[in-house]
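name: query_chain
kind: protein
chains: 1
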Amino acid sequence: MNKQEIYDYLKSKGVRYEITEHKAVYNMAEIGDIEIPYPEADAKNLFVRDDKKRNYYLITIKGDKRVDLKEFRQKNGTRALSFASESDLENILKLKAGSVTPLGVLNDEECRVKVFLDADFLKEPKLIGVHPNDNTATVWLNTDDLIEIIKGHGSIFCVAEI
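structure:
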C-alpha cells in the first residue's frame, strides 16, 4: 500500500486520524527540523532480523528512546539481532529506508514480521504518530486503532517494556 492507499484503508475502517504532511525525513534527527503537532507521540521504528535471517521484527518505540538490541533479545527471547537489510525491507514490507512504520505490515503478505510496540504508547492519551508507508507524512492515530489494524492483518503483535 502506498500513502494514499493507507489513508483510504484507514477511512474504510472508520479509523479517526490526522495527517501532517512534511518534507521527507530519514531519521529521528531530521524530525527536529520540521514542525509536528504531537512530538511526544512520534514513533521511531527499527526493522531487525535474527542472526539466521529467519525471523523479522519491527520495534516501534517513543522517538526519544533508544533500543539496546542485546537487552531486547534477552527480554523477548529472540536470537541475536541486527538491522535488516534494505532489500529485506523492500521485499517483505515493500518500504524504502526511512519509511519504516507499523503500517508497513499491511504489505507483509506472509505475516513474517512480528511487531513489538513500546508500552509507553498505551498510556494516555494513547496517541501515536507513524509514517503512512511514506516518509513525507505522519499519521496520528489512537494506539488501540493501530493495534487492531496490526492484529486484524494477522501479524503477530506484542507490547514491550523498552
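note: The mean pLDDT is 95.
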